[in-house]
Amino acid sequence: xxxxxxxxxxxxxxxxxxxxxxxxxxxxxxxxxxxxxxxxxxxxxxxxxxxxxxxxxxxxxxxxxxxxxxxxxxxxxxxxxxxxxxxxxxxxxxxxxxxxxxxxxxxxxxxxxxxxxxxxxxxxxxxxxxxxxxxxxxxxxxxxxxxxxxxxxxxxxxxxxxxxxxxxxxxxxxxxxxxxxxxxxxxxxxxxxxxxxxxxxxxxxxxxxxxxxxxxxxxxxx
Amino acid sequence: xxxxxxxxxxxxxxxxxxxxxxxxxxxxxxxxxxxxxxxxxxxxxxxxxxxxxxxxxxxxxxxxxxxxxxxxxxxxxxxxxxxxxxxxxxxxxxxxxxxxxxxxxxxxxxxxxxxxxxxxxxxxxxxxxxxxxxxxxxxxxxxxxxxxxxxxxxxxxxxxxxxxxxxxxxxxxxxxxxxxxxxxxxxxxxxxxxxxxxxxxxxxxxxxxxxxxxxxxxxxxxxxxxxxxxxxxxxxxxxxxxxxxxxxxxxxxxxxxxxxxxxxxxxxxxxxxxxxxxxxxxxxxxxxxxxxxxxxxxxxxxxxxxxxxxxxxxxxxxxxxxxxxxxxxxxxxxxxxxxxxxxxxxxxxxxxxxxxxxxxxxxxxxxxxxxxxxxxxxxxxxxxxxxxxxxxxxxxxxxxxxxxxxxxxxxxxxxxxxxxxxxxxxxxxxxxxxxxxxxxxxxxxxxxxxxxxxxxxxxxxxxxxxxxxxxxxxxxxxxxxxxxxxxxxxxxxxxxxxxxxxxxxxxxxxxxxxxxxxxxxxxxxxxxxxxxxxxxxxxxxxxxxxxxxxxxxxxxxxxxxxxxxxxxxxxxxxxxxxxxxxxxxxxxxxxxxxxxxxxxxxxxxxxxxxxxxxxxxxxxxxxxxxxxxxxxxxxxxxxxxxxxxxxxxxxxxxxxxxxxxxxxxxxxxxxxxxxxxxxxxxxxxxxxxxxxxxxxxxxxxxxxxxxxxxxxxxxxxxxxxxxxxxxxxxxxxxxxxxxxxxxxxxxxxxxxxxxxxxxxxxxxxxxxxxxxxxxxxxxxxxxxxxxxxxxxxxxxxxxxxxxxxxxxxxxxxxxxxxxxxxxxxxxxxxxxxxxxxxxxxxxxxxxxx
Lengths: 222, 849
Prior knowledge:
The complex is a heterodimer of chains A (222) and B (849). Chain A has 222 residues and is of the alpha/beta class.
């Protein structure tokens, strides 16, 4: 389902030197499985996630997601790819602050081109347990509730792949557990392929596989 | 596409108030422009469509002095001879009689040939057997139409007749609608009509009288106006000193004062439009900047690369369209109010004019300008990377090249707008350059001040430090806001200063008889002594007296005046020079320079000594007619040729209001020629002046008396009316600037809310933050107003001194008042716009991120 072959990413630093963020990452993730990506800060976790989402282009190597080589796609095609194939959950939620929870999800559904965006959005919010809070704006929701809205938005189109960047990083332990459980439940129910970046040592073992990065290199995969 | 439309709809819905305020801000500028342009359009339309009625004929042949007899041309259906001249009119000979200068139109033949002259009671057969008087004069003096068979004394007693010239004329009717009567504010006095025969009998129309003749002609149906005008013009002999004009040409000249006022007002309206576009740029750029994070989220969700920019672009386009519609509606309504504000500065017919057509070209140009300045911000939205959500160091979108090219294009469009609305390319270039220079100066000074603020010392109260931090955080926006506020204050103050400089010398009354306010013209030599005695008796001061000889300039330095082409350096407008050369000249003689004159070239003749055929010219006049030191000028005075050499040039302080002349001759050159006298006296008090006028009118009925106090009052009225409109537009500009401030603060509300929330969570008190906001906006408005106020002081002073040649004494209290008002209003609007952000609960704000 996801095939990384010799992925490398370098940047030009302001002083002119070349910064290598990722080096020779090769990995194969089966469809429907759950992968945790771990590593210290600066190890390249977010960069790897960005490459998987088509937000960043690898300097070397190839990325094949759901049978599609991402380096062969144009900017417009990558946008369409993200809309149809990916769901993305951020650490900071990144909800649209002036829209209600329902509207945030509807916008995601419309971008994905769903036939009945309103009905599907209601369904997605019900699924994450926010059926009573659809009309509330992000400012009126707790951190956990905001993240659940973000999860609803990411899964409204039932994407084959769900990418999560430290989804529990901004939450207290109780809410973190609840959100993680929700993500895992959705992963099972929707049969999505899950890639989750996390520092949490308690959550990672609940995934099917763990990929550890250290200074841009794959240290271990289990 | 449907997603874009739906997102734009959502944006309009949730941001309704903010977008409405932005639209209102832009609408103010459009409204001001549409109002003034609408007024201009109506003036021009009125002049164009009503020119025939305004003139009262198809063609007019004008002369200075008596019109020679002319037979009816084959193409002409009817013609009427009219003479226009000022004369003193009075209500009688008794002690209670009043007199004043009136504008007499003496008519031979049917009148008018075209247009309306309605009277009460109506005239039958358009016969003129008495006086037709201006309704304002009739009301002021209690005049009414005369009954039959009354004696002169009885006519005067009943106020059914007026003394004019050497006799009493019964009042035939009071004038109602009069198409040929232009804006009354620019007239010396109310108009009266009488027959030419009666005017001759009264001694008002004589070969030596100061009057202009016009032969009005109406063509036969089917005759071509242009061809006929060309033919008749070609038939005029060069020595005739006659001028032929069609009704369009003549009416245009008649309406010149209105055109000039009109141009000034329409320029102010254009400046307000440009100011609003600047403001719109500031607001909408801030609004689009605030959309960048949303754009990143939408891109991350999979929206097409151009979708966020398209949503924002569509929203902005709808806001601008709404602003246009609102501005058009408000401006069209205001255009009908403008003539009322201007009062008798405009002809009455103009007040009922049609609703003007919106200026499509200027509107399209303004919209194009906005599109240009907003294109870079929209391009940035297009380029927003979704990576910005994952990584703070994601490269910021934007292209300097695009920003500069769009900015220059917008500036070029603005310059083109100014040029298109100017009276000439040179005037347009100067105006555009001045405005650009002003804006760049204000912008540069604002940036510099912000940098200085940023680098100012650390030892200052916390609220002030926070305020300076906010001002420095967005220097470009801060500088732009300062420039917008500064421009509004500059225009308001500069026009006020110049107006005060114009009015002050007119209104100044100083004693010692050196600042006369009552002038007596056409005094015959045998009348001079008794008049001087009368004036001395009534005023206790020696009046000033100058002899005056009327002459025609026939040659300059050997070249006949009619053939003399424009010489290099003659003057900016050769046609004006030709007009100055061919008009009737008033010469005087004097042994020494007067107190209001300064020698600027050559040498003045000594007070005693042998006869000299020498002339002294006013330097501006010399330049206009193309005469220089050493040139011989030839004059014709009632058939006698007079020659003199220019031996000196003078500068005259015209605002001294003493009898001054362009051409002064050595006494030996003119003293044996027919001359009249001009006397001038300083008389304290309007009532005393009026009484003296009455007495002079009774004893010397042929004299024309000019009460400068009244002239000053009329000029003051004109200036007040123009100043009223200017102040209204300046207030509109300031309002627009403050709306810009409010709207830009609302556009950037989220960022400000976050900053304030963070400070509250760090422990800053509500009071501290309120104080910091107050400081921030006081500094913003105060710096802008102070900077532009000083600029207005300097530039307006330079304009008054160099261009208008006036004494400059700008009132500091006016400047200080406007500066304090602008600062206070900026602080009030800024605080009011920021209160909501201040009152938001910190946790709600921070959680909402």
